[in-house]
Amino acid sequence: xxxxxxxxxxxxxxxxxxxxxxxxxxxxxxxxxxxxxxxxxxxxxxxxxxxxxxxxxxxxxxxxxxxxxxxxxxxxxxxxxxxxxxxxxxxxxxxxxxxxxxxxxxxxxxxxxxxxxxxxxxxxxxxxxxxxxxxxxxxxxxxxxxxxxxxxxxxxxxxxxxxxxxxxxxxxxxxxxxxxxxxxxxxxxxxxxxxxxxxxxxxxxxxxxxxxxxxxxxxxxxxxxxxxxxxxxxxxxxxxxxxxxxxxxxxxxxxxxxxxxxxxxxxxxxxxxxxxxxxxxxxxxxxxxxxxxxxxxxxxxxxxxxxxxxxxxxxxxxxxxxxxxxxxxxxxxxxxxxxxxxxxxxxxxxxxxxxxxxxxxxxxxxxxxxxxxxxxxxxxxxxxxxxxxxxxxxxxxxxxxxxxxxxxxxxxxxxxxxxxxxxxxxxxxxxxxxxxxxxxxxxxxxxxxxxxxxxxxxxxxxxxxxxxxxxxxxxxxxxxxxxxx
Length: 485
Ligand code: ME8
Description:
The protein is an alpha/beta fold. It has helices spanning 19-37, 53-62, 66-83, 97-112, 166-176, 182-195, 223-228, 230-233, 256-269, 301-308, 310-320, 331-360, 371-374, 379-387, 391-412, 419-440, 445-455, and strands at 3-8, 11-12, 41-49, 90-93, 116-126, 131-133, 151-160, 179-180, 200-201, 203-205, 219-221, 248-252, 278-281, 284-286, 289-290, 327-329, 364-365, 472-473. The protein has 17 helices and 18 strands. The strands form 5 sheets. Strands 1, 2, 3, 4, 8, 12 and 13 form a 7-stranded parallel β-sheet that branches. Strands 6-5-7-9 form a 4-stranded antiparallel β-sheet. Strands 15-14-16 form a 3-stranded mixed β-sheet. The longest helix is centred in the C-terminal third of the chain and has 30 residues, at 331-360. It is elongated and about 85 Å long. Residues 9-12, 20-21, 23-24, 49, 227-228, 230, 251-252, 254-255, 283-284, 291 line the site of ligand ME8.
């Protein structure tokens, strides 16, 4: 059985989850569900980045002990997964012992290899990014990610010889096509060429929060060195070793460098196999603006689920935003897609066809089929788009088929047909709906469940996307799938 190991970034728990976190988890879930549909052995990991100093700072501000604060907030991210119908197989937190142990082991291994040395660091540090910057990285003296001035830090630190692995990293990115889509691969390659790789500060001195550095008790491990290892430590449990290397690390564009340069370097140094793909998505904006607490435009995904429904939100985010690009979130656009595509195109199709079946047949038996409609389904195209991570284009192709089915009903005036002709058309239409339901199940899983219940069948796999599989349908029409908003 082919395995498929997919991860999301692990989220900082300094604040509540926002729509960007929801977007990333939904994309990963669609891919995980798609690979399960292909009957692969899927392992899907998400979790939280507990050890960041920004979490500690937020806890202090809230006047809550740090551990208590991160525990409370990590629960919100777990809850978000439940609300979004995310099928993660594991949820890792970097404060868990299973992770701490592996992070310390890898640090020690890299040190023993001679790739970590002690020195002194002084420079500009952005707490938001948990990273040092040089003047030229800044925009008008401010961090481009957080739009705040970094603070000056000077302290003893251990350094990782990132520069030693530059050639290997470039080779990996080039030969294995590690980073996808291409614009994000090119971003990394040109940055590597222009700026090169400076050695990376990998510990902080005199901090109480964080993983203890195994070679020097005065230091804690720098949060990125610690956090990246989560992907590997989650596979060190008994039975999960087989999942490494990861097939896909799904991340947002702002943390590409850490995943496409620093992570491979840590793995090269510790002689662990490299992941297959760093899959980079764009950012969600609101009215073209970056989402941020300071901007006051943070959108609570759970509130959206409560108001519009989980499949509605999942569908909108995947369909609206071409994968890899930024996309704007607006409730107007969400409502339009719910009304036009979900309620009209899909909901009405199911309701219309099942009404006709119920009004005319107790049981709908397999008959001769309508080839003209069958040939409109382009499974290869959908499969190719999914394999190429073009989730929105896969949905476009599924929707092209849905629209063809709708057109076909009108063209053939199915409601006026009688006897054998009617049976033939209805059987083909119900088979179309069954296949549509399979193909949509990674995107809108609860809707698929509802459709299958009305059709009186079990959920299918990708291999069941063939016309003529069901010998007899006993249809029981249910409530409408989507209410208009
Ligand atoms: O970066 N739209 O955590 P995080 C879409 N802990 N995605 C967004 C986004 C937006 N507006 N804002 C952020 C971290 N993201 C680290 C990761 S991994 C070893 C450590 C994405 O909570 C972001 O790019 O700031 C990242 O992939 C994820 O959300 C978590 O962001």
